[in-house]
User: Fold these one by one.
Assistant:
Number 1:
Amino acid sequence: MRLSICIPTYNRAKFLPDLFDSILAQTGYACEVEVVVSDNASADDTQAVIERYRGKFDRLVYQCASQNMGADWNYLRIVELASGDFCWLMGSDDVLEEGAIAAVEQVIAAQPEIAGLSVGRVIRSFELERRREERLAKGLVLSDSGELHGADAIFRSLAAYLAYLSGQIVRRSLWNEVVEDSPVSDYFNAYVHVYVIGRMVQRCPHWYYLAEGLVGWREDNDSFLSDGEYNRLRIDVVGYEQLARGLFGAGSPTYHHINRDVSTGLLFRRLLSGVIDAAPRSFFTKAAQLTFPLYARYPAFWIKTAPLLLLPRPALRLGRTVVKSLRAAS
């Protein structure tokens, strides 16, 4: 079995060595491993980093685009370049934890029929200091390792977590089939990989969740924040509504389940970040205008998330102080 570690990247030269070193440090596995990097026309020293590591890997594939084609294009391109039976989609600023490849190899050997698997993550600081282990984003129902069957069940358990690129490993042949005959370009919303996985599990409705933290997530380094906090929030809200509608149909139980999870998970965390970062009131006003029409039907939204949109500024300032104190204590 060959495992391709697929790394789409753009201007991440200063982070790639951490990832490469974490791959080189892996032990205890027998499968063949290739490292594949698709560079979206980086203007930094990415190519120099690649050349420095080229002789350290048994197989390192690197291709650089002539211009930046966007993140979604790069997610598809990276799998095109790979040759493994399975592809581990990997953010270029994250790292593999100790024993990660061996653990994934063991699952694939025991569950050969799966379309892919998701793995837990370890939350690390920007400097990669360990903070805590997070098996699933808050609000989701699955907490222990196990196989999931049926596209609806898979997305009800994992939909929001599938947004995390580095936590997903896919069967390359099935991925390629979906990309070949599905309207993937309609879902260039930063989450095209979630759409492809959705179509994969509709064809092969078997997915595995490995709860062990196998990926180190570098927190506070979201490249999509470069366009501002509101636009980052909008990617989650609009993108996931489109995905849920396209995969399961507007109004279906799974459609509502996914949107409800986003309203109390991804959206809640974006708003909480806005509180912590002292975002202007206009951020919360625009967020309310975007989200209330979509999520007002869900009681959980009103209980957990809506207060962040409705609280007066003094309360938000107090909340910001409390959250920062709790983070410092942890």
Number 2:
Amino acid sequence: MKLKQKPSGKVHRRYLLIKGVSEKNIREAILEFVGVLGFAEADPQFVRKLKASEVVLAVERGALVKVRAALAASGVGEVVKVSGTLKGLGPKVR
């Protein structure tokens, strides 16, 4: 019998489509704004690089507001769209 993971134990991620910035600048902006502990809670992972200036970033659901605030405060990039699935970001991401 296969063991199933409880819904409360699953990782809930939100996907951000960010325009106009590099991966290094995004990491530095989040780290500077929320610190090391906040960075660990957000667990940012770069999923895809669409163009030279567009990336898809996956973050934990609870830290979404902090990550958006970090990007807005630093002015490094613009969050175009946020979705719970990659498919929800649009046809460019699929």
Number 3:
Amino acid sequence: MLDVGGDMRVRVLCVVFTILLGDFPGTFLGNPIGTRVGISPFGQATTAYGQTSSKAADEDTVSTDTAGNEPAREDSAKKQLEVIVLGNAQDAGYPQAGCDRECCKLARSNPSARRFATSLAIVDHANSKRYLFECTPDFREQLYLLDQLAPIDSGRAKLDGIFLTHAHIGHYAGLIHLGREVMSTDRLPVFCMPRMKAFLSSNGPWNQLVDLEQIQLKKLAAGQILSLGTSCSVVPFLVPHRDEYSETVGFEIALNECTMMFLPDIDKWEKWEVPIESLIARCDMALLDGTFFDGSELPGRDMSQIPHPFITESLSRFKKLPVGERRKIHFIHFNHTNPVLRAESDANRQILELQMHVAEQGQRFRF
């Protein structure tokens, strides 16, 4: 059972998932996986919707666990896994530097409309652990937001690990806060793919974080399961994107008996050899690239130089799916020009009419 909570400080659209699970062995992009822990088809899911307010030695490769262990069930709401959306904007946040258009004037005049760059936190309440997905330029504010929504005991590490998708600024630039000028963390695990690891190890100021042992780079492998305990595991998968400095991945994250897909950046669905519908079918919730609503947002820019699947393209494609599949979809990673950042927009209405969703900053999902 996935239960959704909220916080009065933020406006959220919430989802309550009731999962009907089956024991289906599966594969992930050709790799065998476990039936419960890891990424596998969990059977059919029905969805109901409602409104609410809102130091170990360095290792080159992380250990993995492919055993299909049955996760322990936790009855207490406190002892759950929780996903918190810490930001839903594109790399530069909202409003964006240098933008004098009406879209950003609105956010500057109304602080409640401002949004951080896309980032998620996974909170393991039972084991008092917190993991960050993406380390954005808004890291300072997002860590504070996480402390407000899911506080931890003072005196322990603020984070237990950071997962990075790729080397575009909105996804790793917040690592600067881990150096001795700011937090001076102690061997904080940073999980990333091989090219991303090489990029951080070979270029300043990031390599200083490695040399001073403020971070430990942990190399991930596509399709390989990383266990974060008996009830949570992560699998990276490669996607086509502008890979100037690193490869790009999405993540499938197993949380107790549910699966969430996090895919904030991809060039175009048709450029990927994997049908996105097949991954939607095998997960219970999908956070997908919604950078641009359509191709008209950046007049004067060549959109082919910054390819993303337009939300209009995704809606046209996904409207053919059964309603139960569409309800899993939450768009995220919105450019400052994207009208879905305004709840009253026609763009938002189009998404909701097809029973898909807009991921909201501060939104919380409990598993």
